[in-house]
# Entry
Amino acid sequence: MKRYILTLALLVMAMAPLQARDGAKKTYVIGFYNLENLFDTYHDEGKNDYEYLPDGGNQWTETKYRKKLSNMASVIAAMAKDNGRFHTVLGVSEIENRHVLEDLVMEPAIAEANYQIVHYDGPDRRGVDVALLYKPEQMTVVETESLPFDFNSENIEFSMTPEEQENFRTRDILMVHGIIDGEHFAFYVCHLPSRLGDKGQDLRARGGEIAYEHAMKMQQKYPGIKVVVMGDMNDNPDDASMAVYLRGKEKIEDVGPEDFFSPFLSMFKAGYGSLAYRGEWCIFDCILVNNALVHAPEGTLRILPIIKKRRNQFYGRIFVKPFMANQKGPYKDTPFRTFSGGAFIGGYSDHYPTYIVVSK
# Structure
């Protein structure tokens, strides 16, 4: 069924602010944001960052870079204002290096959050990585790992030749094992292969499979660990990478020990989106949680519903404010991005951020 662009008013109405809950002792916000090509103005050896240099195609100056940083920080600050707290954990994608994140977390709008950074330089040919920002007062990092993409699957038939596979480079998946309020968590931050040329379904399926296989190993190693898989999946929650290879279920009651709950699946079916792709709303910015977070023992952290409607409740939020959207023209109500038609327009990102809330 074709999915049409929703109006911003409907999106804002659906994404009501997080409400205080009686008896909620501690509440933590966990989210993801695609920062849309956050590059600095210097060349990094081995990175394809030439467009984002002062003399490059985008004429990427220090002034534009600082505007981009300020915009990204203002969105993070707006989420904190709505929720009454900064994210405990925020996964990000499309960042060039650690340096841009160090500049971002020092922006005046969010400096008080004291965000720390987990980042690895990855092999992506375009030169973008994923990373994790976290509040050290709320999470202690135990271990981290960068999971490379490979073709070692018994379940997927790949369209690439062996030679093409050998030369293929994409983003690693970041795994961060931490402790929040005495409980073990494993966070996976993904940016799965693109849809360029209407291809890559098999590659995204493998990306989902890599995250799933590692998460199952973590569950065996740390019984009861709470797992969150997030990222720009370049797939919707009902695509095979999410629904089959990550075993994402729409309903909590269907989630078993080796399944994930996919809170944005019901929202996608209801017509909401985190980005406009070819004139339709999609939710590529997925967050999934394991059985331990949806069927948590009493007195431990579990995922909570954020949005309550007459007949439905949603466990995720797509964050959008009017300043983050185009206010007029052919792209009215869609994300107000950094560039349009090759011209710098001073926007934010081509994705809206998504998040979930966990609480005792």
Q: What stands out?
A: Residues 8-16+29-351 form a domain with the Deoxyribonuclease I; Chain A fold (CATH 3.60.10.10). Residues 260 and 290 are 4 Å apart (CA to CA).
